[in-house]
Specification:
Elements lengths: L1 H16 L5 H36 L1
Length: about 60
């Protein structure tokens, strides 16, 4: 039983060290990820369209 209580106490101590992001930081990170994912998706769509057009012209 002491191993469990020791584990719980260590877990609480480690959790107390965690710095959680603020609402503003989460919002900024979300927007940054959204912009990057959108840019990459558009880029890949353009590359795919270009490559399929070239392949259709060849065949």
């Amino acid at each position: 039983m002491s191993k469990i209580s020791t584990y719980i106490n260590h877990s609480k101590a480690e959790l107390a060290k965690v710095i959680f992001p603020t609402k503003q930081q989460v919002k900024q990170s979300f927007i940054a990820v959204l912009v990057v994912v959108t840019f990459i998706a558009l880029f890949l769509a353009i590359v795919d369209l270009t490559m399929s057009s070239i392949l259709s012209a060849i065949l």
